[in-house]
Amino acid sequence: MRTATKKPSIPASVQKFIGVEWGKPAPGDRIPVTTPMHISQRPYKKQNVFKYIARVGGVDWNLFGYATAVRRKSDGAMAVINGQHRINLVKLVLPTVTEVPAQVIEVDDKEFETYASALFSQFNGQTQKSLTNEELFHSQVLALDPEALYMKSILEKCNLSCGTVNVKPTTTPVVYATFAKCLKLSETATVRAVELMQKGFKTVADDPLHGLVFLLSLPTYSVLGDAKTKIGKDFETWFTQAVPMFHSLSDLKFKKYRNNPSWQKGIAYGLVKSFNKFQRNHSKTAGPAVTEIKKIYESGFKNEDSGLLD
Fold it and tell me: CB 3.0-4.6 Å disulfide test: which of 81, 123, 206, 279 passes with 286?
């Protein structure tokens, strides 16, 4: 394992991983980490790399694969068209490493910008035939994009699939856009919401999932997802035992509350309202008051009259 002096510009949460690496770089051609980016490259997002380092804990060469570069035949000039964030990952974590594995494509002078840009577009899903979110996600996983690999790891943890990523006979498919929104809200809430749905209904549905994640991501209602608390245990029992006896996951879309364009808010409101009613009817302690989630729900009404719920 290599060690290096920590740079003050790197967040403290990342600095402890400087010098940490495992696995072996892929065999074959190498390019310098200082190779310039091609003109077609998208902006570099340092924060995404920081987040990836903090999650993965260093550089895993088994996940790095190959960067892609074009080399102009006339003078040997090179430019990177795929792998910008992975190369910067190596530069941050392993400052003593000077080269990375790469596929180097020889091009004529006139192709250095045109053909290389076309390759970049194809790498990033901008071909003439539009890719679906799921297809683009799959290509990003293959390209070892840090954010895509992060989502893939959560899918695997939850026994879910998205498009062709993590497809197995036992996995449940989810829509990319919905699952991405859930993870943006909270990874912890997402994993817990999936766990509750799988335990109660043996499957997962996108809209109810988004609503449940939205609910559990709110500080006031996060206790409902905490199985270590009394009310969290009661919520789990209600959601996984009582609700499935009389309702399907489709019922948890709470269509009567879809007068708010942000459907997840109506679903979250319906969940709290239904759970608290169940608790009261069974002489049990209700969960957090419905007041806050009702206010959030009502703030997005399409019209004033939609506020009359009861």
Answer: 279
Of the three residues 130, 162, 182, the one that is the final residue of a domain is 130
Domain end point (choices 73, 100, 130): 130
Residue 130, pLDDT score: 56
- Mean pLDDT across the chain, nearest whole number? 87
Residue range(s) defining the domain that contains residue 104: 12-130
> Is the domain of 89 the same as that of 211?
no
Give burial (CB, 10 Å; 0-12/13-18/19+) of 120: buried
pLDDT of residue 52: 85
Cα 263 from chain centre = 20
Q: Are residues 72 and 190 in the same domain?
A: no
* Residues 297 and 207 occupy one common structural domain: yes
pLDDT in tens, 262-287: 999 999 999 999 999 999 999 999 99
Q: Do 180 and 105 belong to one domain?
A: no
Is residue 181, in this structure, part of any structural domain at all? yes
